[in-house]
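Q: Fold this one first, please.
A: Sequence and structure below.
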Amino acid sequence: MFPDTLDNAKVLYFTPRGDYGIRTLTDGNEWFRVCYLAICKYGNSQEYYLFECNEDYRVESDYSCDSAEECMELGKSLCGCGIDWLNK
């Protein structure tokens, strides 16, 4: 079951486990494989965050956006694939 919170932020949307790409370090070595994406929000913050997570649901990278829809578009762009978002 997908966690309710990630990095102390409430999960609003998430993806099924999948292959959403590999992120690399500047030297070209693999940093992590993106297995999950999540759109989250911290407390009273106006910002939404797109989290890229590893196979253990650990947040490896994040992006700040103005809306959940913007996060969804960014996720699609970063991963180069269609994404099925699930409501939490």
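Q: Good. Now the second chain.
A: Here it is, same layout.
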Amino acid sequence: MDFEALAAGYAQAIPFNIHIGLRVQEIGEGYGVVVLPDGPTTMNHVRSQHAGALFTAGEAASGAAFISAFAERMGDITPLAERADIAYLKIARGDITATGRFAVDREALFAELDREGRVRFPIAVELKDPEGTVVCEMNVHWYVRANA
């Protein structure tokens, strides 16, 4: 699998992520990493990263992890983030690195997708500040359906 090509394509695929400056740092086997840069356009009223920007970074990292697992099937499916939960644990300052990890049995999901035409599963994400402190934890629940 050419993970560098996946990362480059994903970086251009979501216009909103480009708008806030998210950078796809890496996509690898079962994970995806994006960086939310520190800057005035992603700040809140207390000069830390805005909750909405953090949420976007977490959702994007889950999407990168999703792509790492489903790349070979992308032409045959429609994936959607169905819901998410996020815990804001610490004040988020500086560049924030969001890492999504695909921890579900991929072959079992593919089998269910082939059998049922749809599948649901979560992807966990951690967001860390430059010192490595976890500032947010997130779960993004994905809904994937087979294209008709």
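Q: Anything worth noting on the second one?
A: The longest strand covers residues 134-146.
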